[in-house]
């Protein structure tokens, strides 16, 4: 015997709420509509579904069994409605975010953790990539958000870019580095020490060449390359090597790592770190994460700028 699902759902609601009127109200239907459904179901079953003369209504044995099946459907419908409501409000769903490695490791991963304390039902998938990879990921809808630097060139028409931090690079070294002990720091002194190369494809690689030209250096000794942010910091702490890093990254690790800034003023790139996304509307969960990152950087930006002004930059 085949049953219509709505008949079983109506039966389950009447059993749960103890009456036709209350069930109809919860289902968003009229009382006569629910009564007709019960009558049709009783006729199909050939048995009464409720014990006569009992208030609130109490199901018969067969009524209770059929109501149990209807309750499964009713609960599934409720959960589906709650899921949809949560998705639309941005309290559930999945956000796929990727970005340039050093910034993702220094800032964004921690911000994602803070975001999920507020929104624990949102899954966040994090990845890495350079600008071209990130643009392709957003264009193909494999990514919702990207954290990347952009310069004077405007983003492509299909993208939105929200700046969050103006770029500033520094030469980083370990605390206690020999150059920090010199009373007068000459610009060419950096050539006397080994260097860590930025990641291939990173904007920092082009920035390093600009710095070398500005310092009048033809070449430097590269001793280490290809490492993650953690491995670069570990390497710097154990050697007298130098490297170029975003100032914000050294700021983020100023208290937990033995790495500092060499107070040598260097050319700065005309770009900003920001959030890249499709111009079309995003799913609410992604927009909630964007709002959280922007709020976090509003507070962080002021602290970074204060730190920058506290350094006495050399010539």
UniProtKB/TrEMBL annotation:
Keywords, sorted A to Z: DNA-binding, Transcription, Transcription regulation
Keyword Membrane: no
Domain HTH lysR-type: 1-60
Any one cellular-component term (Gene Ontology): cytosol
Molecular function terms from GO: DNA binding; DNA-binding transcription factor activity
InterPro entries to which the protein is assigned, alphabetical: HTH-type_LysR_regulators, LysR_HTH_N, LysR_subst-bd, WH-like_DNA-bd_sf, WH_DNA-bd_sf
Pfam family, one: HTH_1
UniProt superkingdom: Bacteria
PROSITE patterns on file: HTH_LYSR
Keyword ATP-binding: no
UniProt similarity note: Belongs to the LysR transcriptional regulatory family.
Full protein name: DNA-binding transcriptional regulator, LysR family
The species this protein was found in: Roseivivax halotolerans
